Every structure is written in C-alpha cells, then in structure tokens.
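Customer escalation, tier 2.

The customer says the design service returned an amino acid string that "doesn't look like it belongs to this structure." They asked us to rerun it and document both sides in this ticket. The original structure tokens are below, unchanged.
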C-alpha cells in the first residue's frame, strides 16, 4: 500500500462508522502498518469526540489495483489516536489471514469472547445439539447394529449390544471371504500383533472407556493389514514433532497442513492420533510453554482434536453395518452422508473454538473449510474401509476386535464427573465465574448424571411420540437455539450479557431433550412405520431434508436465522 486515494472519504466514514462493541462479532479488521497509521492520523479531526471508531479507506496497492480496507482506532481522553485497538481495552477481531506470518505467541492479538459473540453462541448451540444426541458420550461399544447410539447408559442395553456383536462376528466367521484366505496370515510376522491391542484394551477398560475405544479403534486396519498397520505409529511420532517444530514448541496450533495430517491420521486410527497429540502436548509441557490456563486449554484442545472426531463419528452413526436388504442399504447411505456431515460439523466447531481456548486470535480459523474438507474425505474413506473389513475380512476382524465390556455404575459416574469438570473448566474460560456459569454447569450436569442411574428411573412409552429421535434431535436443538438467539439474545445490547445469558439459555433445549429421552421407553414395533408404504417415503424424504439442513448449517449458512427472518 503506498498512498491514500481520497482523504475526504476518511472524514466521511468517521461520521458513519462508530463501532458498537456489543455486535463487534459481525466485523473483522485489517492490521494497519505504522506508516499508514501516521498518514491517516493527520486526517482525523481534532474535534472528534473520544471513543472507538471504524474507518473504511480506499487504498492503492503496489500493483496499481485499489481496494477498500477496513481499519479501526480509538481516540482516548487525552486525544491520542490508538490504532488496532479500542479504548475499552478489548482487542477487536483481526482478519485471520493477516495472522498467518505471525509465529511468536506474544505478537498475536488477544481474543475476547465479547468481540466474537455470534461464534461463541454457535459453539454453545452445536455443543449441546450433539450432547442431546449423545447423552452418554464417549465409551460406547462400536455400533455394528445399524441402530441409533445407545442413549440410556444402561448396562443391560450395552450387554445386549455386545451379545449382538458376537453373533454378527460368529455369523461372519462361517462365511470366510477373500481377505481371510490370503497367504500372508500363515506367517507370524503379519499376525503377531493380533491379540496385543485386544489385551491392552481389556486392561485399560477398567478405568478409561474412552482410551479403550481409542486403542481398539483400528481393529479394521489390523484385520486388513496385520502388523503392517504399526507403520502409523512412527508417522504419529513424526507428526507430533513436526507440530512442535511448526510452533517452536509454543502452545499454538501448527500449520494447517500439519493439523490436517494429525486429524486424518486420528480418523484412520484414533490411537495414532492420540499418540501424535500427546507428543505435541508433552513437548510444550517440558519446554515450559504450558504455564497459563489458556496454554493448557489450547494444548488439551489440540490433543482432543487429534483423536476424538472419529470416536464421536462412530457414535453419531454406525461406523460399519451389515447390508442385507434395501432398507439396510438406505441406512448405510445415511451412515456415509449424515455421519460424515455431522462429524465435519463437529470439526468446524472445534476449529472455531481454538481462539477461545488459546485466548489469542489464530490464523487457522481462516482455513476451517480446508480442514473440514480433508476431515470429511477421511471420514468417508474410513467408513468405506470398515465395510471392506466387515465383508471381506470377517474372520480376521473377529481376532482383532474387542467386544467392549459394559461399564459399571462407578465407571459411568466417574466419566460423567470428569466430563462435567472439563465442561466447567472450558466454560469458565469464556464467561468466568457468575450465576450464568453455574446455571449452565447444572444444566449440563443433569442429563449426564441422570444417564448414570437411568435404569432406576420410571420410563414412559408416550414420551417416544414427542421426543425427537436420531438426527432430528440435533435439528430440534438448532431450531430452538436459533430462535433464542434471533428473538431474544440479538436484542441484548451488552456483549458480555449476551454471552452469559446465552450460556445457559442455549443449553436448556438440549438438556431438556436429553432428559426426556432418558425417561422414554422405546418398543421394538415403534420403527415399523418406516419400512413400507407412505411411512417409508416420508422417512426417506425427511431424512434427506435433515441432511441438507445440517450440511448447510455445517458450512455456516444461517438456515434458521433466514427462516426466522422470513416469518418475522
């Protein structure tokens, strides 16, 4: 940028563009160079009242092209002009593309949720939409049945699921297929690891269902490639050290390429992803770069990002499924489409949450689409490989697959308490200690604790008719959250109040739906309507509609906001 095209435009924009802090999340700004700041300062009227201002300026680039750039400044009580900041002390949102060349943590602009209210609200809504779908959370047995994820936390249901898995595998064993007959399985060099991961998973299952799911996650890959699958673990170590090199051992996200590689590795093998995340976390820790709450939060967030998406995906929709008829085929197509788009949605929200965890504005958020696209491709390919393993390596799969034991009440209670503690820790980073914070924690905790003892609760079949099921739960929570944001929160002028009030109001629909789901009793005949006639047509039509809505929502199209605006 060399010179100002129109000085009069500056004064005109000053009179129009006073920044409203409450809605600062609607704007991003360019970082201004010192040279340009000096030029612009001379054109600001001395009679301008103290306050925060936005300035749109047409500037000419070195190649002769011109563009309209958006800058911000503050005039303090002493008449000083302060660029790239507000007098309130909050650093507004900078265009994340401009942060790509900043590699030193101390040089990154700070992140305040008050300047990004809409993103914080979207994260809250999406988090509890998923929680309404998965009331139990990580640690389920892998769903091979094609049914909805287990949502009552009961050991009886889990035992039945485990028994059904055994029956499926036994049936598969009786029809050995191409993969089982390969000559490589006669050599111990390819099979010596078959039982190792199963035994490790059994040992850790007593204290960590989530780690159990991670260590047993790649059973499909070990069934297909045997000990060759171990190549993923040196790759995991390499990616962990590469991430440390990218960030100079700072608690910051690595480059987009490295982050995508860690994500995709974790999709194909959750334990390998966990290993790469642990290398990065440990490297930051031992070099003294985890010394603040935000550094700890972003390190934990990146660790979760490296191995959790596939665990969530396998709970959202079956990771593999036997297909025997046209209905099974439709459900499998749904697994691919809906399971992928829901997981991509979770990935996008995890990327959006990184600045809040780090307390810094990060360039990685500008590349969320790239991260999501590669993550989606990996999820699709993972399900495809699972189908190959299930249908072509059934006997091998039996040898490498762990049937997850039913967790005890103590384990379920411990897991619920840990999840509540993590949620409270993360929520505190966004809104601090307040009445709204504690209300949100309570609303989060109620369905978690209720699911632990749901076997003892009375259940009603009539609730099945009013409680949304499967992915419709997510749509229902999104509609409720969108309505709260559009009709109530948008009218709250103070940003911090919007965050505080939204923290518990946006949790409420998902929490209520989760509790009602735990109190409902589903009969075997409740799903018969979807197998034939008009019920079958309606089921597939509305299923397709749900997918389209969730896909648009994943790529940040405000479907429900537009809908509310239309009817308003």
């Amino acid at each position: 940028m060399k010179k100002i095209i129109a000085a009069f435009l500056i004064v005109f924009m000053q009179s129009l563009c006073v920044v409203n802090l409450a809605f600062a999340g609607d704007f991003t700004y360019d970082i201004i160079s010192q040279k340009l700041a000096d030029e612009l300062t001379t054109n600001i009227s001395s009679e301008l009242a103290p306050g925060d201002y936005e300035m749109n300026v047409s500037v000419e680039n070195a190649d002769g092209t011109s563009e309209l750039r958006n800058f911000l400044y503050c005039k303090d009580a002493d008449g000083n002009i302060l660029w790239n900041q507000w007098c309130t002390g909050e650093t507004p949102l900078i265009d994340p593309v401009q942060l790509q060349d900043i590699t030193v943590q101390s040089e990154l602009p700070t992140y305040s949720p008050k300047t990004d209210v809409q993103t914080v609200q979207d994260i809250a809504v999406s988090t509890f939409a998923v929680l309404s779908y998965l009331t139990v959370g990580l640690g389920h047995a892998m769903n091979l049945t094609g049914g909805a994820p287990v949502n009552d936390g009961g050991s009886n249901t889990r035992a039945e699921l485990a028994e059904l898995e055994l029956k499926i595998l036994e049936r598969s064993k009786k029809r050995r297929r191409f993969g089982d007959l390969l000559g490589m399985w006669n050599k111990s060099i390819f099979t010596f690891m078959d039982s190792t991961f199963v035994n490790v998973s059994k040992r850790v299952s007593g204290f960590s269902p989530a780690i159990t799911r991670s260590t047993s996650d790649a059973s499909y890959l070990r069934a297909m490639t045997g000990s060759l699958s171990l190549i993923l673990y040196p790759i995991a170590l390499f990616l962990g050290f590469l991430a440390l090199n990218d960030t100079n051992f700072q608690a910051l996200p690595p480059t987009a390429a490295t982050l995508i590689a860690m994500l995709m590795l974790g999709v194909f093998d959750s334990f390998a992803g966990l290993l790469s995340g642990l290398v990065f976390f440990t490297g930051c820790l031992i070099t003294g770069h985890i010394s603040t709450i935000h550094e700890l939060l972003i390190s934990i967030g990146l660790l979760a990002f490296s191995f959790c998406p596939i665990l969530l995906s396998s709970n959202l929709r079956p990771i593999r499924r036997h297909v025997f008829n046209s209905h099974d085929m439709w459900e499998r197509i749904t697994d691919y489409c809906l399971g992928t788009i829901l997981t991509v949605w979770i990935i996008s929200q995890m990327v959006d949450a990184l600045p809040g965890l780090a307390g810094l504005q990060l360039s990685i958020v500008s590349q969320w689409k790239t991260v999501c696209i590669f993550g989606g491709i990996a999820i699709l390919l993972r399900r495809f490989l699972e189908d190959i393993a299930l249908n072509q390596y059934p006997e091998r799969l039996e040898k490498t697959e762990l049937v997850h034991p039913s967790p005890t009440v103590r384990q379920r209670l411990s897991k619920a308490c840990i999840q509540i503690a993590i949620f409270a820790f993360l929520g505190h980073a966004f809104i601090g200690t307040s009445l709204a914070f504690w209300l949100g924690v309570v609303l989060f905790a109620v369905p978690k604790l209720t699911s632990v003892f749901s076997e003892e609760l009375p259940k009603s079949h009539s609730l099945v008719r009013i409680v949304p099921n499967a992915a419709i739960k997510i749509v229902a929570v999104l509609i409720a959250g969108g309505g709260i944001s559009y009709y109530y929160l948008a009218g709250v002028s103070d940003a911090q109040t919007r965050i505080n009030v939204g923290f518990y109001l946006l949790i409420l629909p998902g929490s209520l739906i989760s509790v009602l789901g735990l109190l409902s009793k589903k009969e075997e005949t409740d799903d018969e309507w979807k197998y034939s006639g008009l019920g079958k047509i309606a089921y597939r039509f509305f299923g397709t509609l749900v997918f389209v809505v969730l896909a648009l929502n994943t790529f940040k199209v405000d479907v429900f906001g537009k809908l509310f605006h239309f009817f308003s």
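Tier 2 assessment: The sequence is consistent with the input. Residues 173-350+364-400 form one domain. The radius of gyration is 26 Å. Sent an explanation to the customer and offered a walkthrough call.
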